[in-house]
Amino acid sequence: MPQYNKLIVGTGYQNVLYTARSPVNLQICVHFYSLPLLITVKCLAASHCVFFHRDREIQFYEMSSLEPYCQVNSLETVPLVLDYCYTGQDECTILYGDTQGCVNIILMTSVGETLRTWKKMAKTENVPNIGMDSAVHAANITYIRWKVHEDWVTKMKYFQNFRAIVSSSNHEASALVIGCVLPSMNIEQQLREIKEVCHEGKTKKVHPGVGSPQPRAACDRTIFVVHKGVMTFDLCRKHNLLVTGGMDRLIRMWNPYVPGKPTGLLKGHCTPICYLSISSEDSKIFSVSTDKTVKIWDIMDQTCLFTAHPKASLIHGDISACLYSPLLKSLYVATDSVARLTLRTRPQPHGNSTVSHKEPVLCCGYSEEFRQVVSGTEGSVVKVWDFDTGMQQFEFGEAHGHCAITCLTFDSKGRRLVTGGRDGCLKIWNFNNGQCLKILRRDGECPDICDCTYLKVHNNAFVMSVGWGRKVDIYLDSPEDSHHIQKPQPSWRDDLKKGHREDILCIAKCPPALLATSSYDGEIIVWNLVSGHIHCRFLTPLPKDGGDNGQGVERSVQSMVFLKTRTLRDEFSSAACLISSGPHGCIFWWNILNGGRFIGMFECSKFKQQITKLAVSADDSMLYAADQGGYIYIYEITSFALRPIQKAPKTTNCWRAHIKSITGLQIVDSDQVLLTSSTDCTVRLWSRNGEFIGTFGQLDRWSVHTPSSWKHPGVPYEVLVDPLSMPTHSVLDRERDKAGCSDQDETDDPPTDEALRLTTSEVQLQLDEDRQSKLRHPPLCISDGDIEREISSAFLPAQPGKRLRHEIFKHANKLLHHGSPKACATLKCFDIDDVSSTCKRPDLPLSGSDPVIPGSVQDEPAES
Questions:
Q1: Which of 126, 195, 398, 682 is exposed most, by the fewest CB atoms within 10 A?
Q2: Which residues of 491-571 form beta strands (DSSP E)?
């Protein structure tokens, strides 16, 4: 069976893995300036990618379709390894090593123009073709060929941080060489060449022809002599570390500027080392040997932390290529198949913040039947929470193996849980004991599932899912079906012929007869559930400020919601009854009757962040929108979009609920609360007005119907101190810069009392102007010390109706000076107030003056 011999992760497409089988070597995937190609050397080329073949060709392929773009043929020798580097605007460098031990460098300027010119060349085998001799003589091309090794080049890579090319071979005397791209202007070398010319009586120096290898000057290279040569290496600027491995089974650690002797030796592999990678963020070294053993080493301690044995990894065949992806924390190993080994690390401590999960939360839902909240995570963990107290009741892991849970929903009675995952399966659970009742999946390959829903059509119940398969999968939920694994119903005819052309991201239902799906390319299709025909379809328009006619703007629709009260009533036949998210934080309104039409749009996210979730109240009077920055916006839409619109609806509230993207948003109308989840590992509960009830998993219990048990008027600690929560008013920005509260200088002294008074007065004027918007603005710029001092001061007696202010307590923790540095001088002294045992409830309307409280626009109360 042919083996995979090259692996890359697509640049800009971190979840895309490119592979190639012999005799094609897939080397690198890049995006050329203005032209995305895949380069190969017969090579796949990046938007264009680069491959190569044994017939000495470099080929460029369209990345989207993998169709040939153009090729360069008649290379001097057989290329073995390839690399690419973006060196500037519309400039790049392509490098390859060959069987003669040479490093070949192609410097390209005006890359887009050059490639388009090559595409117009005469075709060979239906591919535009240009010879290497013609290509290197172009004005935008510089070709250099260095003679570096006395054996085949085993690996080669350009390191932008060092501005140097590192190449290796199995020749001991030139095992690894760090060299320049262009020769340096060395005066001594030039004088030596002039003397040689004079001595030999030559009138002109003879320059080597195209393709003739040139030796580098000694000052332009650093040579590392290694026993039995080097098969693989990696270089890290952060740790100033070079690691090499080869036939002698040792990993050598070098200072890249000191080639004389390695700084460390790592022993443990029993066969030659074929792959090395340095993870600078984790301070780890990953190594793979030819016997398929994987080891992880600690850079500082120079010890082996972990060994993955071949039998445990279930990797069969000879290893021909490996790749470690720091972003995905995964090691890809290629033999006659491709295996992915995922590194699972212990969760990092979260400091003062309270978290619900150890991994990012991707979905959440509420079961009204049991009054429970269910959340699913990136780590395939399901947790069940008590809605009324916030306490965890049950959890089970590996719901979808090691694949993330991307969506969840409940059956019509709220008694069974349906989850969808990146393994392409839907699973139906008894979520109170973790029993999997049924698995719903396609035959063969199962693409990732992005969203799912449960609905009833007449007397039948269905589970529907959408995702990377680009089709609507429909499963009949019948109690008579006793099969544990169930296949989907035949697809609708319109879905097969006229359906989505891109990955479907979300699904929305409007019983009894309508269903809407949206895709990555911005297309929305409304389906008739009874007939399976397309009712109408839309394409999300581009914003006016998209630039370049909107090219490069992501149109993906992340969320949709129906206004059901309008859809079912004739008097709203011309009104908007479908809402969708779009680019640049915009919300779009659509009419789906009479063929459908676009009603209008407005910008929702003040930071132009993608809107990730939409929800409406049961009576369709309030719209809730959540964005990637963790903000929630509330709009009053009772009489909005009854006709084509130009202005945004009235904003009733805005606050920041999480510090990362919100992945779940659900209104619990019966209790007038809002449920949210986020990739910041938390699931939270809020009142419909934005008052913070609590984070699921916190130590203190709450009672949904007892406001005094809520965290309000407090807000989550990490939201309070996050930089994005800082004020956006220009007045505050100027005062913050004067007071030294900028991000670049966090050590400056706090603002004076006079500055604070000036800031307060100017802010009040600004708030008066913005009173109609009633947007919640983040708190004033404060330090962590101020927050800790206020928290500690919260336990002191305070007069009823008065809230604590940061500026009042900014001097509370100053040490008392008694003229002696004794321990007693550091004690804090406080006066004790005589208060009655019966405390009145605080006057909550006064909380409207707190800039931390959602919707706060009231005047500051006068100080007594």
A1: 126
A2: 504-510, 514-519, 523-528, 534-539, 560-562
